[in-house]
Each structure stands twice: as structure tokens, then as C-alpha cells.
Design a protein that fits this description.
By secondary structure, the protein is of the alpha/beta class. 27% of the residues lie in helices and 24% in strands. It folds into two domains: 95 residues, Vcp-like ATPase, Chain A, domain 2 (Roll), CATH 3.10.330; 196 residues, Vaccinia Virus protein VP39 (Rossmann fold, 3-Layer(aba) Sandwich), CATH 3.40.50. A seven-stranded mixed β-sheet has the order 9-8-7-10-11-15-12, sandwiched between helices.
Length: 334
């Protein structure tokens, strides 16, 4: 994977591509993880530019800072400083889940890592979990889900657009996570092929249309989540969740603000990613006798106040009508 950068770093003597990893190299610490063929690695420049590549013998990584041979990145401990043929320093790191999500090829808006992390928590995902996702998009959230459930779990991802399935498949394969995902090029209008799954997430414009099918696919008491961008979508979804056999309903907006890591001048970054969406989570339950008993306390108080105000309005209307009936017409003056 080739990538270009715009900055020009400060040059040093770069005759040794591994920057002193020869006779003067510091021995790897005991238990250090070494790079190997096929690994997905991250190269970070001294200006903070990040580049994701898979190590393949004989290939080279090219940027405006120079080229670096993949062979010179093999059998090195992560955290090592390497150099391009022009002498520019690059930090060799193991890519984080954040790096994997944000640096994939995309043909749709991908989910932000802050939202993906909270979705994984609300779905209570762990190794071995079985989770359904609709729709797949470019596979950003799919990567996070597969990362959480591997190696024993499974992600069943549904997408109606064939071109999105192709892009997602390629992205998942590049991240080494395709073995943990079943991609379905299909509509969910007729429901899901799986049943009794541990979790289900809807990343759709109208998730309330598919709550009955989601409830049927989930095991009772498991975990449901949906992500929508606007408040009117949230309100519609809440109403349908209350009617559709879901409880423990939570609405959240996830905001993350970075700070400049300067100890003597710690302050927030000049810009931040603000609103990206609302996360609604709930639990499918079975309570045929009184399905609304598990509404939140706030919702119950609101319903009680609403019912009281309606009774007061009815009583005032009844009294007004009664007083009109009791009034006698006055006789006309001569």
C-alpha cells in the first residue's frame, strides 16, 4: 500500500535504512513482539502522518520522505525507529483499532471510532459473541465488531448495495478479519437468517421499521443498538421500541475532545469532532401481560403527568358545561 505525505521532515544520514539497528542496535526486550511477513503495520512520521501497510517481501513503501523496503521492516520489535532511504525517521508501530477503522477504503461515511467503541460496549461484545449488523457500508463498524468477537465469534453483516459489499469485503480481508464475518448481499425486509444471536445493531435511516425482525433474531434479554443522526429519528425509534417489546432503553450522544499533549501548556485542540449521531440501546424482553411496565422512570413520570393534566382538563370542561346549563335567562326590562 503506497501513501504520499505533504510535509518534509528534517534529514539525517540515512545510509542505514534501519537507523542503527545493526551493530549498535539495542537488543529487543524479552517478550517483545516482532514483525513478520503478512503483518499489518503502522509507520508514523515525525510530523504525525500515519501510514498503514501490509509487509510483503520485495515491496517498498514510498512517500515524499523517501522509500523504505518492506524487508527492512521485518523481524523488528514494534516501537522501533526506522529510516527511509533519504534519512527521514519513521516510527514502526502495531496499528490500533482506531487506525484500522479510519484508514480503510471507503465509498460511504464510516463510523467514528468513538461511536464504534460505545456500540461494542452497549452490545456487551466479547470473544465468541454472535452479532448481526445492518447495513455494512464500507465496513468500518464491521471491523470493530469482528475485532471484538474474534476468534470464536461471528459477525453477520447485511447490505443491500452490491458495490458496498465488495468494498467491505476487501477492507475486511486487508485487516485480516474476513474469517470472522459473513457478508450477506440481501435486504432485511424479510428478516434475518440467524436466530438467537447475542447482539444486533442497526445502522440504517429507518431502524424502527425493522424492530420486529430484530426482536425475532435476538435471544430474549440480549443486546440491541441503533445509530441515527437526528432527534426526530430518535423520537420515532423510542416510540416503536416501547411498543415493540424492548426495555432498558438508553439514548446517548458520544463526544470526545482531544487535548494538546504539552505538559506546560495543556489545553484542548483547536477543533474537535462534535455531533456524529445518537446511540440508542435497548434489551429485547418478553412480558406479554404488561409490556410497558419496564419503561424508564422518566417516561413513567411523564406519562403520569400527562394523564393527570388530561383528567384536569376533562374536569374543567365538564364543570364549564355544567355551569352553562344552570344559568337562567334574565327577563327583558320593560
Amino acid at each position: 500500500m503506497n501513501s504520499a505525505v505533504n510535509e518534509a521532515g528534517e534529514g539525517i544520514d540515512g545510509s542505514n535504512l534501519t537507523a542503527g539497528l545493526g551493530s549498535s542496535a539495542v537488543p529487543a526486550r524479552a517478550g517483545a513482539k516482532l514483525t513478520k511477513v503478512g503483518d499489518l503495520v503502522l509507520l508514523v512520521s515525525d510530523r504525525g502522518k500515519r501510514h498503514l501497510l501490509r509487509l510483503e517481501p520485495g515491496r517498498q513503501f514510498h512517500s515524499h520522505l523517501g522509500s523504505t523496503r518492506h524487508d527492512d521492516l521485518l523481524d523488528l520489535p514494534y516501537g522501533t525507529t526506522v529510516h527511509s532511504h533519504l534519512g527521514h525517521a519513521l516510527l514502526l508501530l502495531e496499528p490500533s483499532l482506531d487506525d484500522r477503522i479510519t484508514r480503510i477504503k471507503r465509498n460511504t461515511q464510516i463510523i467514528y471510532p468513538k461511536d464504534a467503541a460505545m456500540i461494542g460496549q452497549r452490545l456487551s461484545l466479547r470473544a465468541g459473541s454472535r452479532v448481526i449488523e445492518a447495513g455494512t457500508g464500507s465496513g468500518g463498524l464491521t471491523i470493530a465488531l469482528a475485532w471484538a468477537v474474534a476468534p470464536g465469534g461471528r459477525v453477520y453483516s447485511y447490505e443491500i448495495r452490491e458495490e458496498h459489499v465488495r468494498v467491505a469485503r476487501r477492507n475486511l480481508d486487508q485487516m485480516g478479519l474476513l474469517p470472522y464475518v459473513e457478508l450477506h448481499h440481501a435486504s432485511i425486509m424479510d428478516g434475518f437468517a440467524q436466530a438467537g444471536v447475542d447482539a444486533l445493531v442497526l445502522d440504517l435511516r429507518t431502524p424502527w421499521l425493522f424492530l420486529e425482525k430484530a426482536h425475532a433474531a435476538l435471544r430474549p434479554g440480549s443486546f440491541f443498538a441503533a445509530l441515527v443522526p437526528t432527534t426526530n429519528q430518535v423520537s420515532r425509534l423510542l416510540l416503536e421500541l416501547e411498543k415493540g417489546g424492548f426495555a432498558d432503553i438508553v439514548v446517548e450522544e458520544i463526544l470526545v475532545r482531544k487535548y494538546k499533549p504539552v505538559p506546560d501548556r495543556l489545553r484542548p485542540d483547536d477543533s474537535m469532532v462534535g455531533h456524529t449521531g445518537f446511540l440508542i440501546s435497548a434489551r429485547p424482553v418478553v412480558d406479554p401481560s404488561e409490556p410497558r411496565r419496564w419503561l424508564s422512570e422518566e417516561r413513567k413520570r411523564y406519562e403520569a403527568r400527562k394523564a393527570l393534566n388530561e383528567r384536569i382538563a376533562e374536569e374543567e370542561s365538564r364543570r364549564a358545561e355544567g355551569s352553562d346549563e344552570n344559568k337562567r335567562p334574565r327577563p327583558k326590562l320593560p
